[in-house]
Amino acid sequence: MHISRTIEQWICRREGALSGRAIGFVPTMGALHRGHASLVERCRAENEAVVVSIFVNPAQFNDPRDLERYPRTLESDLALLEGLGTDEIILAPASDFYPHGYRFRVEADSLTTTMEGAFRPGSLQGVMTIVLKLLNLVRARRAYFGEKDYQQLRIVTEMAAEFFIPTEIVPCPTVREPSGLAASSRNALLSAAAREKAALIFRALTTAATAAEARSRLEAEGFRVDYVEEEWGRRLAAAFIEGVRLIDNVPLPSHETGDGDAALS
Question: Does domain 2-172 have CATH number 3.40.50.620?
Fold first, then answer.
């Protein structure tokens, strides 16, 4: 497994050792878990070379405190990725990705004004900007994104098409704990009791008759709820427990496909 610690080093790898090989790409912010592992495993199965980036992108955090407390577990992340057969790691610093500061950013119209865009102003612009940079840098045949961040997945998919990026954006099902809790780096910030209680988000989304009912159930259990909305054939939610913000989504019954996940439309 080779680690590029600067963008210049990565470009040398891309133009040299990886030239002519079909690249699969998994962008991450580290603090890796079973969900990330599933993306890397699929990437390994479908491509000649597996490239993973680890970069905690400051541009997508609207709250500096959230950026500061975001879990960072680089040593265990690298061990996990090596065990999964990853070929290349991009570990460049923010000064490489934003050499002149955050001067240029990608904006979208209505896609970034609801849900995550409404409650975390600027976060989705930060996501689009760094993903566009990464897709241009890696030049992968395929890039893999989890469906847990469904609004992000939709925006990245449409942005790639809009800017004629040749990389195929591959959606991958959410990985869950036995309780139903969606795998997330932020789960590591929860106490054992809160982690168990957090599974109520998934239960409320899957069993409530309406989005309003799901919200009421969560608020009755003590969650602070940012939103529960229905869009793209899915029910999506964001809620806080122990001050940690968790997101999740599930397909609405009428939009379920044979594998239990909604198809992108």
Answer: yes
